[in-house]
Specification:
Layout lengths: L11 E7 L12 E9 L5 E8 L1 H18 L6 H19 L1 H9 L5 E7 L11 E2 L2 E2 H4 L2 E6 L16 E8 L7 H10 L9 E8 L5 H8 L6 E5 L2 E2 L9 E4 L2 E4 H6 L8 E5 L22 H7 L4 E5 L5 H18 L2 H16 L6 H4 E4 L8 H5 L3
Helix pairs in contact: 1-2, 5-9, 9-10
Organism: Youngiibacter multivorans
Pfam family, one: CHAT
InterPro entries: CHAT_dom
Amino acid sequence: MIGGYRENMPCVVHISIARFDSRLPEAGEPLNFLVSIHVEGTGITWQQNITVDTSTEKELQEMTQDLYLWSCNQKLTRETARDCSLKLGAKLYDTFIGTVGDKILAGLKITAILLNIDETIQNLPWELMGKNGVHLSQALPFGRLVTTRELLRPNRDPLREDKIVRILAVVDTTQDLISGKHELKALQALEERRDGYQIKVDVLCGENATVAEFERLVTPGTYDILHFSGHGSFDRQSPETSGLQFYDGILEADQILDINWKSPPYFVFSSACESGRSSGGIRLISNERHSNGLAAAFISAGVSGYAGYFWQVSDTGAGVFAQIFYKYLFEEENLGKAFLEARKRTSWELDEVGDLAAYGAVLFGDAATSERLDLVRMGR
């Protein structure tokens, strides 16, 4: 092989949990899935059929709701919330990975996990999945990929890019959050020349942060990264009306889907409550062209990577996570590693008070980025 090998080889593992039935599940019926594990660069994929019965589905949903209520200060305590997160993570692991899948993963020196989840089960907090008191997303670069039957818009073309990384920071839209100021400071600190490229941050804030002005700025497709810091909302019954709070109103998920992006950003970070959620049992985009939440809308618009929060996120937690993430993103130049570092550091700083920011942060996209076996074989 060209370039030989190094001591620690990349081992990017794809775990896929897919529904092989094209119809949407009926309420109360057992759910059948095909679970597979594939190591990039190898010629074989292991798979197994599993069935999630109604009692297991109910248990998963109830624990998810309990943690949501904890994030709203309505249920549980710091200790019981931590116990619930570990119990839910173990239940997800035992249900979908199982004994045989665990043996396969245990025999690998994994460097990143890409969790390919069917569009109908994005409503579960997969970032908690783990065993022995350790969440996989806290140990390895971990990203969600979505399996959908919808034809989506094309992604941004990297071959047409210049040497400037353009960031649009939408902050302080309601002028009542401190975290936006800290997140903006972290972004503006990036504005310095680096190896071969430059970072430029444009700011939309306060009374200027209207829905119309946002659409005007993003439609031409000049921004590589979009960062929103503010309030978010999620409607489980009508996820297409979930949205981000601007100065003059809500930018709903379906409005995002309808933006005529000339070229969507590579990466969007919605640093807002419940901005990474979707409803269960429905598609990423329905036949009526309604989006299943904010993440679904941005992904369907052609965004390559999207980050948000599963539950309510505290002002402190959002600020800490974003500051650490952007610092490491441009030091490591690796999306997955930066997100992992933000998870770890935020957990270290806020676990004592039971803050869920580190565990509720959701990354859609390629968390492995440059950690690829083919690049090592070629001496890259």
